Amino acid sequence: MHYTTEELKEKIKELKSRLSVTVVAHFYQRDEVFEMGDITGDSLELAKKTMEDDAEFVVFCGVGFMGQSVKILSPEKRVVMPKVACCAMARMIDSLYFDESVAAMEKAGIPKENILPITYINSNADVKAKVGQMGGMVCTSSNAKMIIEKALKEGKKILFVPDRCLGQNVARMMGLKSAVIGQDENLADADILCYDGFCSVHQLFSVEDIAFYRRKYPGIKIAVHPECDPAICEQADFVGSTSQLIRYITELPEDQKVAVGTEFNLVNRLRPKNTYVLSSTKPECPTMNETTLEDLYLTLKSIEDGEPINEIFVDEETRKWAKVALDRMLAL
Ligand code: 13P
Ligand code: SF4
To answer: Model confidence at 88, in pLDDT bands (50, 70, 90)?
Structure first.
């Protein structure tokens, strides 16, 4: 049976009122899915707010590592995802590649006990667990600088995975030296050693795009996410995580033009006027966009029918160590 968007919204609201569920939606979700969220936010806000929620089921509209993080932090909750879509960046590293990165650092003369790993939250549970076991922690784009600052106090070299750009951008902001494993020589000279992962969506923005907007609208502000290449961030007026970008842009004077380098769904609902997408290619995150209103409806229906689909499970040993890495971040 085919329902219209409005019919689906009504059915979802009805199911939500009958069931012990909380619908959680990331800012990058399609508008109509985002609108159904009881809890909305960026990855850090979602992890924190969901921990405090007491519904039996969390229906997570986002990408795989986000649903997994909820399950890791609150194993008593039943977490289901309308689509278990895996973030392309998180898919670039697994525990084997993590071990290879540690081995490359050892080969460059850095002993394992001098390595402190930090993983961006955009990674799967097995990588977070490896990081937890080695005394490291998780960060998000909102707190990466603060987490790296604290970590450096231990006097160790930082292994930063999986986002090369976030690692390099934070290093630049802090006046530190970074190197990319597998690309740069002299790894031992760097303070932050980055894994060579990246977000394909945030690679769409170019220095030519910035030059185009600056030429077309003199005085325009350029605001970008730190997953963009360092060459982009260096030229931007503002670099910030999803929540930081929202705050910066919504607080600009109404007539201030701004071109934004981050995911399309978010930029599109930010501000009615004077806001541009900093790319001629629509920067949609394919995996975030996989979740449709119909998927959300079918997931809620499966809970009502007693056979929840796409439930997230993490084995206990992995969960234990991944939680250690997440808890170290939350404690800061
Ligand atoms: P936030 O941590 O800003 O929510 O970003 C998550 C993400 O996937 C950005 O591409
Ligand atoms: Fe992953 Fe990039 Fe999508 Fe964010 S925008 S979820 S980093 S693929």
So the answer is: very high
Cα–Cα dist 101/81, whole Å: 31
**Residue-wise DSSP of 87-125:** PTTGGG--HHHHHHHHHHHHHTT--GGGEEEEEESSS-H
Identify the nearest ligand to the CA of 25 by its number.
Answer: 1
Q: What is the whole-number distance in angstroms between the Cα of residue 273 and the centre of ligand 2?
A: 26
Domain co-membership, 116 together with 128: yes
Asked if residue 190 and residue 102 are part of one domain, the reply reads yes
pLDDT the model gives residue 48: 87
Residue ending a domain, among 157, 175, 199, is 199
Whole domain around residue 299: which residue ranges? 5-86+288-313
Same domain for 189 and 98 = yes
Residue 3 alpha carbon to ligand 1 centre in Å: 31
Which residue owns the Cα nearest ligand 2 atom 2? 199
Q: Which residues contact 185 (CB under 8 A, 6 or more apart)?
A: none
**Probe residue for ligand 2, chosen from 284, 287, 289 as the CB with the greatest number of ligand atoms within 8 Å:** 287
| Domain endpoint, select from 151, 177, 199 | 199
Whole-model pTM: value is 0.95
Q: How far apart are CA 148 and CA 143, in angstroms?
A: 9
Considering its fold, how many domains does the chain have in total? 3
Distance 320 CA to ligand 1 centre (A): 24
